[in-house]
Amino acid sequence: MRSSSNPAFRNLPHGGTQTYGQYGPPVGFNQPQGGVPGYGPGPTASGADDRPMTVDDVVVKTGMSLGVALLVGVITGVWALPQVNPHGPLPGAVLGAMVGGLLVGLVLSLVIIFRRKPSGPMTLAYSAAEGLFLGALSAVFEALYPGIALQAIIGTAGVFIGMLVVYKTGAVKVTPKLTKWIVGATVGVAVLMLFNLISALAFGFNPLRDGGPLAIVFSLVCIGIAAFSFLLDFDQADRMIREGMPSKWAWYTAFGLMTTLVWLYLEILRLLSYLRE
To answer: Is 239 helix (H, G, I), strand (E, B) or coil?
Structure first.
């Protein structure tokens, strides 16, 4: 399976007739003889999770994950917004919701990635944690820049739909060269973010996030990389479907798409705040 810039899709086991690599076949993926030509051996009828994954599985699981994140985010935002004073200190409850959601989401994402096993409850819990974090953060930005949260949501949805259309029409082909470029670019911006964070904490120098021209360019670059990362995510989902991965792996695909959506939303939110300065 081709590599991806999304850590959720790295080193996944293969289904169908492909080799499984050092991790062996996915848990619960029993393969009898026969199967559908071109899709590898079919699953047993031991349960619904043993049937091959379909596009509908990916759409439903991703929709459920996104719905949980939006629901929790809206509820959190409605609760937090009246408490935020744009000219005063951040309320402890709002800060606690923001930090708590961020930390829980980070821990759950690491567990899901390193376990390399699909889990509906953990994916939905991750989505809820991110909804809590983004809802509280969006309330803070909304207090400072009214209307910015809705603009960021619309922008994120627009980029996602646009890249899906680009992928489905074949306007941009996912090739090994493009994959390497996106992976390299993602690693590069991650390193820059780390050094910028160290610089901000140690010296108060924050050029990539201070709202200046360099920060605007950096956010545009991050948005571009996140957008192209969707192409790799879509391609990985297609490959998992073609290789006959069990339907429960749609949860893993949904998790991977959610991580990219969260990153994209954050970068669009930042960029819009810079342009409001």
So the answer is: helix
116-131 pLDDT, tens per residue?
Answer: 888 899 999 999 999 9
Q: Which amino acid, residue 209?
A: R
How far is it, in rounded angstroms, from Cα 254 to Cα 64?
Answer: 9
- Find tokens 């985010």 and name the residue: 73
Residue with tokens 């670019």: 185
Percent of the chain at pLDDT exceeding 90? 66
Closest CA to 225 of 187, 275, 273: 187
Closest CA to 7 of 132, 187, 160: 187
List the one residue out of 5, 141, 142, 121 whose CA is nearest residue 68. Answer: 121
- The DSSP letter of residue 13 is P
Please state, in angstroms and rounded to a whole number, the distance separating the CA atoms of residues 265 and 51.
34
Q: What is the pTM of this model?
A: 0.82
Q: What is the CA radius of gyration of the chain?
A: 20
